[in-house]
Amino acid sequence: MAVSLKEPQDGDLGEVSEINVTPFIDVILVLLIIFMVAAPLSTVDVAVDLPVSNAQPQPRPDKPIFLTVRQDLSLALGNDTVASEQLQATLDRQTGNDREQRVFLRADGAVAYRELMEVMNKLRHAGYLKIALVGLEDTGQAGATKP
User: Fold this and answer.
1) Rounded (5°) CA angle 12-14-16
2) DSSP characters over the chain
3) How many CA atoms are closer than 13 Å to the CA of 98, on its beta-carbon side?
4) Of 3, 21, 65, 145, which has the highest C-beta tally within 10 A?
5) Domain residue ranges in the chain
6) pTM summary value
7) Higher-confidence residue: 5 or 113?
């Protein structure tokens, strides 16, 4: 409540019924400064029009086929090293000539994109068109990843 310090005629101090807006303005200015600082932090630096994916997670097959591209660009099917020239024959043997099976492709982080695309082209020429790229799941903990 505010009180008027003017000398009233009847000797009684009267109440002033005006709203003090100074604290309200202070709060608004503090909120404005917070939003001005926080807004640039929440924007993305690179503008990309990302497509929306509504794909449901697929069940993992009982016996998945993993093709690994190592750092030295050698290939491994499961745990066995396979020559690049023998890739189609080895895949046909392992899948029983079922080219509709999904091949899970994983590569070392040092493998260049060009080399990974060459391996994908070899799979396509071999008739294996269902290729799934394998990566690590980000758990949000530094140094801890889950395959």
Assistant:
1) 165
2) -EE--S--TTS-PPEE-----HHHHHHHHHHHHHHHHHHHHTS-SS---PPP--PPPPPPPSS-EEEEE-TTS-EEETTEEE-GGGHHHHHHHHHTS-TTS-EEEEE-TTS-HHHHHHHHHHHHHTT---EEE---EE-SSTT-EE-
3) 8
4) 65
5) 2-41, 65-146
6) 0.54
7) 113
At 37-47, the pLDDT tens digits run 887 776 655 45
Buried b (16+ CB within 10 A) or exposed e, 64-99: ebebbbeeebebebeeeebeeeebbebbeebbeeee
